[in-house]
Amino acid sequence: MNLLGSLNYHLKVNLLGKAYLRFDRMRLSWRMRRAGFWKEEQLAPPLFTSPRLKELISSHYLKGRYANGRGPVAWVTSGGPVEFLTALGYYVLYPENHGAVCGIRRSAEGLCIKAESHGFSRDICSYARTDFGAMLGGKTPVGRLPRPDLLLCCSNICQTVLLWYRVLAHHFKVPLILVETPFLYREALPHQVDYVKRQLDAGVELAEKVAGRSLAPSSLDRVVRRSKEASMLWAEIMSCGKQRPSPITAFDEFIHMAPIVEMRGEQFTVDYYRALLAELKGRIERGVGALASEKKRILWDNLPIWYRMKRLSRLLAGRGVAMVASTYTNAWGELAEMMDSSRPLESAARVYLHPILNRGTGHKLETIKNMAKEYQADGIILHSDRSCKPYSVGQMDQREKLAGEMGLPALLLEADHNDPRVYSDEQAENRLEAFMEVLGV
Amino acid sequence: MSSGEVSALGIDAGSTTFKLVAVDGHGNILWHMLEPSQPRLEEQARRVLQEASAKAGRELEQGIMVATGYGRNLVPAGRRVTEITCHARGVFTATGHGGTLVDIGGQDSKVIVIGSDGRVTNFVMNDKCAAGTGRFLEVTAARLEIGLDQLGRVALDSKGETSISSTCTVFAESEIVSQIARGHPIENIVRGLVRSLIRRVAALARSAGITQPLMLSGGVARNPAVKDFLAEELGRPVELPDHPQLMGAYGAALLARNRK
Questions:
Q1: Which residue range forms the structural domain that includes residue B18?
Q2: Is residue B255 part of a domain?
Q3: CATH for B13
Q4: Which residue among A193, A194, A220, B28 has the highest number of C-beta atoms inside a 10 angstrom radius?
Q5: Mean pLDDT of B140-162
Q6: Cross-chain residue pair B85–A404, CB shorter than 8 Å
Q7: Which among B70, B85, B122 has CB closest to A437?
Q8: ipTM of this model?
Q9: Nearest Cβ partner for B70 among A396, A426, A431
Q10: What is the pTM of this model?
Q11: Per-residue pLDDT tens over the stretch B38-84
Q12: Cβ separation of B207 and A400 shorter than 8 Å?
């Protein structure tokens, strides 16, 4: 930390930035309440908490922009055990979330091309290519990403991250904490938990050294408590989708999940989800659905197609098809119960061993079956994501079993979460329309 | 085909051919039109519909039309339905039963499982490439200077078979060149090509789960080798409706008739 950096941060983030973002939130909230603001016929107006979400995300990237010089910065994978970094005062950046922002804002393609022009294959995950493009100086809609002082990579989401973070470590010449999580076919065994815990102990040591301070147990306790509370709120928010009509769609969740992924362990994240839950409960009480008319309910499996969210949500809503839940957003709520602030690192080892992508395809099928029952789904879309092989593997069999054993209409939709060049509107929408005809709408 | 008053029209604006079927009040096919799809699809649709009105002897209103196929949104019809639902309805009515329908069109292939009530219970389509579609045969046949009409006969009459390992249209084309250079007879290569296409389609059919009986539709079904090879590959007989290429348009016409 240096004095000049701190002053600059204080001025640009805490004074000017904060004031501007607050003003912007109020302006948006005011606009939303004006008559004639919402012109969509099939979709309900956005949630009133949305401007607050925009403020949170903008503020997160604004803090990132001026983070270097103020304190340590870490880049982490989406399934990374981040709590000890937050407790040590790190500014934490999630390249995958940043990738999603680039996807929504249509900048990912340019960043992918930049990465490819430096020799990265088109077969590599489009999040990784988006990140490499940004790393190589490509333009990002968030302005500027902070340089990492430390990298944290956890193998619980895929194997690509192992190579991806090595590239980052080589490029930025910074240390890398690698947490290897053995693949689980059933529940984690004690020696597996111990194996991950020992890696976390070593990780904490390295993170302390880079940050130049020791991890205070009270800080870690506070962060884990907030993480748990936010995850539980998030789970409750998603459960609202079980209502008929559903007050929230998975499309909404894809956007509103940003804080639980990249701002876990912060008090403002807990506050935000409390407000969102209250708003959803209000919708339920008033019988307000996320769609003007909900005729059928479906599930979504895998990452969203970030660059086509609006178009796809309109297409489905146009026929009264509400996408009420997704296995993807569910992943950030289903493990909340396992978090335990009294044994922070041991429980972290357990939690971060159990994400859906670190478990067998049979487990995923069971998760889908349970969700289909709980959410009273009439069908499911399995997004076969060219960029996310661990999520997509097994979908052919899962589709067959869901359609055959459960009689649940299931569509395999081929796309890519961030690279629009391998997506065909015509083909995808034709399949979706046929799927909706099968659903009878 | 019977004569009578046009009750409904089905228009299948496919990627390769444009089909129109007129049915009477009982759902019988009165007459049909078929021509290559043109780039100016809107103009083509207008012209074909004018011709259809002339043929019917009266102005045909949009309310009695259902359009399907990739170009369906450009056809001024009262309603638009995907070719999945239309093919299923057409084949179900034509054959009188459900089952698994394999439809190989110009630019996509699909496997549709049709329930005993005629409704679609499951479907899968080829991925985003020309493998397993009519386009695969079109491109490769052109390379061998064989007309699409003769392709099936040539394949069936060949004495041997050259293995074509690629299902990718572009790679298969270069594979053909090297097989010719190695002195393989053209008819053996043709047989290998049809086999390659069928293997791809059969894999798609297996992934959908095959419910007996097995049926085939789409323009590619006109190729007799396709039916035989598919039966061989999947180890069960394949049933072909009378007008396999018209099933989409026919199904559309039936949907239009029911809606009235």
A1: 8-87+246-259
A2: yes
A3: 3.30.420.40
A4: A220
A5: 90
A6: no
A7: B85
A8: 0.86
A9: A426
A10: 0.91
A11: 999 999 999 999 999 999 999 999 999 999 998 999 999 999 999 99
A12: yes
